[in-house]
Amino acid sequence: MAPIGYLETGVIYCDDNLHRLAQFPADSVDLIYLDPPFFSNRHYEVIWGDEAEVRSFEDRFQGGIHVYVEWMRDRLIELHRILKPTGSIYLHCDWHAGHYLKIAMDDIFGNRQFQNEFVWYYSGGGFEEAMGAQARHHPVLHQG
User: How far apart are CA 12 and CA 20, in angstroms?
Assistant: First the structure.
């Protein structure tokens, strides 16, 4: 890991962002876009290119929604620390926990910092269509 206060550019880090965020100096980032796990309680698997390259992750949190929200709060606190006072953060979420995350963001960033909720509309079928419920959007919360 790089020393605290040192930001290497042009690098993608594949690790827990909570540990990586500790390296960032306070008030150093203008824009944050966050697309975390959604607390969907599902296993996701995607084939990239050919079947030799399969990527997967678990979107399950033992202990329920409160464990997930605390996991997110830890990261949101660090993100708030590194965000410049003039910066903005966009949190992409969905119906599983978006309302909990809005409250957590208001608590951490201040409810007067809430700017807007954008709607990311998408088409397609997938799981929701197969189950009869056709969710076609995700909220993106904007604070800053």
Answer: 11
Q: Which amino acid is at 128?
A: E
Tell the burial category of 30 from Cβ atoms under 10 Å away from its Cβ (0-12, 13-18, 19+).
Answer: exposed
The tokens describing 80, both together, are: 């708030």
Classify 33-143 by CATH class: alpha beta
User: Quick one: what percent of the chain has pLDDT higher than 70?
Assistant: 76
Torsion of CA 44, 46, 52, 57, to 10 degrees: -30
CA distances from 112 to 22, 86, 116 (A): 26, 14, 11
Per-residue pLDDT at 26 exceeds 70: yes
For 17, the enclosing helix (H) or strand (E) is helix 17-21
Domain positions in the chain: 33-143
pLDDT tens, 56-101?
Answer: 667 678 889 999 999 999 999 999 999 999 999 999 998 889 999 9
Interior/surface letters 102-131, b for 16+ CB within 10 angstroms, e for the rest = bebbeebbeeebeeeeeeeeeeeeeeeeee
